Amino acid sequence: MDDDDDDIPQLSSHTLAALQEFYLEQQQREGMKTSQGFNQYSIGSIEEDWQLSQFWYSDETASCLANEAVVAAGKGGRIACVSAPSVYQKLKEQDGKDFSVCILEYDRRFSVYGEEFIFYDYNHPLNLPENLLPHSFDIVIADPPYLSEECLQKTAETIKYLTKGKILLCTGAIMEEPAAKHLGVKICKFIPKHSRNLANEFRCYVNYASGLDRFS
């Protein structure tokens, strides 16, 4: 047997650099990049999965919704983000000590956020952990993954179970009537934007006097 190293194929420095860059990007896509200064809560740290109907809000929209939630929840308030991970991430970026927040999400990649992550499947709206008590959140922010009345109706069951009263719903403009029917919410002046342009017009709906109606 010839042990000559010359017979072993060697990768060029250019190929090695490209390979290294690929693995670095792959690591970042999974939201697990641990290099110094990386913010695990930044929007996009976990990439959208279009097969799960995931479309992240723009940074400005996520900030606006997060700020509205903090005000609505009040000092020491509890906030639940149902299928709205980019709002959860923006709330965590604030590092607020005057509120607590959890994320109910189907995508288990978000389990990197530890105990605040709760696996959630809208098809089983009340299949929730025992420690998630009814009417224990000052506000629930929800963005049902699909623009269908079935999805909205099932998500509404979860919302009504969790909230003490306040609801902030984000969904398509075409869902205005079903949203009013199932949750008693009304459309706001504020128009949410996504980091990628969507074909469907999106709107916010609330059932309380919110700051989202101050927008023109």
Question: What features would you describe in this structure?
Answer:
The protein is α/β, with parallel strands linked by helices and 216 residues long. It contains five helices and seven strands, in the order ααβαβββαβαββ. It has helices at residues 13-29, 59-73, 85-93, 149-162, 176-183, and strands spanning 77-82, 99-105, 117-119, 137-142, 163-172, 186-187, 202-206. The protein has a seven-stranded mixed β-sheet with strand order 3-2-1-4-5-7-6, with helices on both faces. Helix 2 (59-73) crosses helix 3 (85-93) and helix 4 runs parallel beside helix 5. Residues 31-38 and 41-45 have low confidence and may be disordered.
Structural key phrases:
216 residues; alpha/beta; 7-stranded mixed sheet; 5 helices; 7 strands; 29% helix; 18% strand; globular
**Spatial strand arrangement across the major sheet:** 3-2-1-4-5-7-6
Number of strands: 7
Decide which structural class fits the backbone: alpha/beta
Q: Compute the number of helices.
A: 5
The N- to C-terminal Cα distance equals 79 Å
Oligomer: single chain
Please describe the biggest sheet, giving its number of strands, its sense, and whether it closes into a barrel: 7 strands, mixed
Query: Strand portion, in percent?
Result: 15-25%
